């Protein structure tokens, strides 16, 4: 029997662009694009954050909720909530963004560890029932992301027998490269 | 009662990249991306033709058939079938392309007139039942095209009550611009 | 009589990517590309900072010195020297960068005020004699920048009768846009 | 003793965008950007032809003359003068373009053979005295092209002792690739 993968709820110390904290349960019935990023990760800044913002602006009314997760695992003194707030302002980011909860003495934040993210950017798609249906590290091109979102939007009920597509790209050894920034 | 829009079959004088002529009936059960272009239309060359080729290469196995329609309505002496063949070779285009049938004394070819195309590039999506579900003039971005394809791939049967999305962009008066080339 | 414009020396509170403080006098005999930026200015991050880095990497040996000036005039708590250091690391910036000196109670830093910069990005070219020969606000395309650098590299002596090209682009009212971030 | 490289005059069967035939002698005193292309060479269409057009539009008044050379060495039936004329019209090319003279029974045209061009795109820079100062096969980036042009614009007299920079990029075996189209 194939179990449908799910992810535990995110743990957020501070929210931006939303007046109330968001939960997975509150998203039920909608397709959720969850993207993990760092404000100083070049590939996030040039590709994944603006891509997520476009999905938010163009498909929120069609049933897609976009949530950013600021998963700082390096340069903590540089990527503070104050820094993030300025970043979101300057880049005109309007979709909700939560700061992943830190644990004292642990460089990788809580949600990032629970989700076993490889680094930033990471992109996850949850279906209307809250099941994890796509999980990618690195850049995802618009065409593939669009097809995946289009498919999920057509589902009225979760598809229990569909397997999770957990495609993780070839790793690189440097900290940040064209693909993104990896936890070492 | 809403009628579902259909389009008559294309009329082709010569095919490339296929050993047998293609018909709409032969596509039943598949999602069809039909794109009209001219080999000397800058926006087609830089955007719509390579986009169509990517859809062909990446989603043919998922049930999408991509067909190019060479709808020459200007510079006929420059955009001949011999020219088209060289173009397809040099640009590494592998999806089937048909030359829209000309009528003596009429600059706009037959299929282009029957489909009332505004110019090139034009993009049409047909669902698995052969109904016209999207019709756009000018550049369509990858994200929107992907979502539209993803939705259609999830349909087992045509949706008779769904309206055609016939979104035509704002017109320009010049012959060829950033958006494409228009019939004047 | 035309006077040749000069600029006073920069005032820097902290240097990165250089073991010794840099001065204009120390640059005599070389062409200097001086670019003012902020680490959260989108147009700087996507265009002017990587452009300056390319000039540094490809033309340092030909006689061009590239110096970045971190002129923070907004979001001071977000764009700290610690933040800048992480930014330079993640974006692989190897050319010298100085933090423009702040004055208590004044949001615009010292050098930025002395140079009467309109905002970020700003680009200045100094000739081998230290005269200001180009001063632009906003994006400068590679072709124009290259021609300007090529011309200055050919000068053995300053050209006293050549007028300063002080071309400032049309202003925008928003804080940060495609062009850059302006002091309001 | 270093001889300064020169090139013989181009041999043109038909000119576009000029009312009188152009000769090297007629260019004396100006910097000349000579670029060889084919209208169905993807790298020419996307990069080198629009780059040459920008140089023409932005630096003609500064003393740069841009000349295109249509050097068809393959698909001759597809890249006719009629085809070229439509191409120049659709792509809004306004700088002079000459069709390289063909010899019966020889696929590579006359000027292309005399200049020993490796393929398309090829870019040559002639100084004000008519000496060949740069010769590149494949894409040349704007920054390097700009610096080279800027340097030549500053020369009042040719520099007899300066060596020709004949940098030819690494070869590829396919006919047309990202870099350009090569004579096989």
UniProtKB/TrEMBL annotation, chains A, B, C, D:
- Where are the compositionally biased (Basic and acidic residues) regions? 158-172
**InterPro entries named in the record:** Thioredoxin-like_sf (IPR036249), Thioredoxin_ResA/DsbE_sf (IPR050553)
Please list where the region (Disordered) is annotated. 158-184
Domain of life, per UniProt, equals: Bacteria
Recorded hits in SUPFAM superfamilies, A to Z, give: Thioredoxin-like
Q: What is this protein called?
A: Alkyl hydroperoxide reductase/ Thiol specific antioxidant/ Mal allergen
State the species of origin.
Candidatus Nitrotoga fabula
Q: Kindly list the organism's lineage.
A: Bacteria, Pseudomonadati, Pseudomonadota, Betaproteobacteria, Nitrosomonadales
